[in-house]
Amino acid sequence: MTDKKDKILLKGRLNGKQRNKVKSLLDMMYTPLELSKEIGVTKNQVYRVYIPLGCPHGRDSIGHILINGKVFRDWVIDLYKRKQLKSSETYCVSCKQVVEIIDPEILSKGGAIYKLAKCPVCGSRVARIISSKRKKHDKQEKLEAH
């Protein structure tokens, strides 16, 4: 199993449009309300998710929270970076954690070859794609485009 450092963080994840807006934040101080409007989340998400997770912030002379846009951008990108799983691991959508694949059954369907096993934590079925024609086809199209 993985330790807490490698655990996939689901709280506060941003969709693609929001991630692009985070990348365009300026090197200036934002209030939580301004930051939430800039990236398209609620003010409560800033207070209830990002600050408790360790978002770098400061306070002005009267105690209002201020967040530097550039520092916040770097923090979000580092916190939510894509995790690489080992070939013997997969993500269980039921218990929302990375689990070890134990006694997998190798199956094929629609050009995809995958491992199917039971989650050792909750008992639901988990899958890990080994290879697929679509992935190979997509890679070849990218190579031909360049």
Strand coverage percent: 15-25%
Report the CATH C-level class of the largest domain.
Answer: Mainly Alpha
**Low-confidence runs (pLDDT<50, min 5 residues)?**
1-6
The computed structural class is alpha+beta
Radius of gyration: 20 Å
Anisotropy-based shape: elongated
Determine the CATH topology of the largest domain: Multidrug-efflux Transporter Regulator, Chain: A, Domain 2
* Number of alpha- plus pi-helical segments: 5
Mean pLDDT: 82
- Based on the coordinates given, report the CATH architecture of the largest domain: Orthogonal Bundle
How many structural units, i.e. domains? Answer: 2
Measured between the Cα atoms of the first and last residue, the distance is 40 Å
How are the strands of the biggest sheet laid out side by side?
A: 1-3-2
Provide the helix percentage.
Answer: 25-40%
- Major sheet details: 3 strands, antiparallel
Count every beta strand, where a strand is a DSSP E run of 2 or more residues.
8
**Element-by-element helix/strand order:** HEHHEEHEEEEEH
